[in-house]
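Quick one: structure tokens for this chain, please?
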Amino acid sequence: MSTLILHHDDCLVHDPGPHHAESPARVRAVLAGLQGIPGTEFLPAPLASLEQIQRVHDAGWWENLVERERTEGRAVLDPDTLISPGSINATLRGSGATCFAVDQLFANRAVNAFCAVRPPGHHAARAMAMGFCLLNHVAVGARHALAMHPVDRVAILDFDVHHGNGTQSIFEQSPDVLYISSHQMPLYPGTGRADETGVGNILNLPLKPGAGSADFRRAWSRKGLPRLREFAPDIILVSAGFDGHCKDPLGQLELKDEDYAWITKEICEIAAEVCGGRVISVLEGGYNLEALASASCAHVEVLATQRV
């Protein structure tokens, strides 16, 4: 069995504007970097169904967003978040990729998966698009796993430089979902303090600006990874943001490719112990194209070595 890489060219159509950091070039850079990695298989990402997204997102809000794309074409949702012709299908591919990956892993057709999709998702709340995000792909995938498969517990791990406020808000009252996030603080969106714990299922690992490899690895080794092992999920979803890289323009962390390889290996080792190796990674941030390509390649190379 291989590591699935899920993508669809619909993800390249979403166009927030020529000077926007979240550009189609991001996914093109990732895909170019992933070519030729042994043990991977590229498959097209399907569209998420309404049933899948409405397990997480408010039906009326989503219908309004679809209508705005149909009637307005381009629309500004907040200063950072826009829709254009094609944005709806692009974000449906992201959530669809995540749900499809869940199904493939539980059918024993793959070891793990990486979803090379955009726009990202972890800032999207139940009825709010923000921070470049329209649908929350990992949240949709988590609810799909719980509804459709023999799953009692899902863990979502987030190492994007920005806190996944949308994911936290969706699950902060859900003890069957563990959310662990390392992120820079202070930084957009201003959430993610260590004292934000939900119903005991939220673990935030804030890092100060300038924090590097040692700080990142210490936070995960001492708190994040032990908590993950203790929770013993049936599947692990990863919000894989690479904007904590030292070359990234939107954050001030000093992570390197080796740190992303390290955290991936640690996650996969725990997954092999507790959930048959089931890990699904979904692209979030990363805005220096060179760093995004190299860091995502380091991440997927580790995924592709995992055999359970």
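The beta strands are 3-7, 40-44, 75-78, 81-83, 112-115, 154-158, 177-184, 202-207, 235-240, 279-283.
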